[in-house]
Amino acid sequence: xxxxxxxxxxxxxxxxxxxxxxxxxxxxxxxxxxxxxxxxxxxxxxxxxxxxxxxxxxxxxxxxxxxxxxxxxxxxxxxxxxxxxxxxxxxxxxxxxxxxxxxxxxxxxxxxxxxxxxxxxxxxxxxxxxxxxxxxxxxxxxxxxxxxxxxxxxxxxxxxxxxxxxxxxxxxxxxxxxxxxxxxxxxxxxxxxxxxxxxxxxxxxxxxxxxxxxxxxxxxxxxxxxxxxxxxxxxxxxxxxxxxxxxxxxxxxxxxxxxxxxxxxxxxxxxxxxxxxxxxxxxxxxxxxxxxxxxxxxxxxxxxxxxxxxxxxxxxxxxx
Length: 320
Description:
434 Repressor (Amino-terminal Domain); 14 helices; 2 strands; mainly alpha; 3 domains; elongated
């Protein structure tokens, strides 16, 4: 592989345009364009600069027979880490802010996708037959889920320039962490309020289930069931909307779940015990009372309440 191809691959791997690489190298965009078009080769000083910038050896850049990347080794025999600049950090946080809203909408759609099926099969809109109602309901469900999946895929493509944060070692440049921490501090109240409101909605969403036991009218039962799903959807929307942006700052700061050294096992242990107890209660009620037709509500309630448990554990981590 020739130098030009290697340069293009490295530049795209880091998500830089020719203009951005030119700025980092203190050359014109035309110079970078000529390097990549094999019209010119950078001098030795620029080769050394490219080697340090991408963290690869000069041999890898200059020798065509070396196709696999060779990284510069430091004193501890670790590969060179990628430096994240302030502008890159700000761009990433802004991108995740946009992605958080899109992913929250997609998640919201996934949860409410079942509602049209309930409505069409139970209420019989336009007095159509049962078979037609089911077909319309399932079609609506598939279309809504397809829309949500499309949004997720689009967000995935838009996130490609920042995939290096998960794939290669990186460090932020001097002063960047302090600015991100300040952003995180300013965002913390909004994050906590959204989680509290989302948890509240998820917990009270089980109320319609209780009312269903006292209602005979099938249409009212469907309305109550749809209300429960809608409340859960709004709660989860809030979780995702603030959670994705918060996670982006944690990723840059290497905090929380992105800090492998300080990763707490308490949350994992509590989660495991929680679900073991929930399943045990479900099976006990189902076998002893032979109430399989009603005991499924236990798992629904457990799933809803878990959102609250998870939020409380996250708040404890923040305070720590």
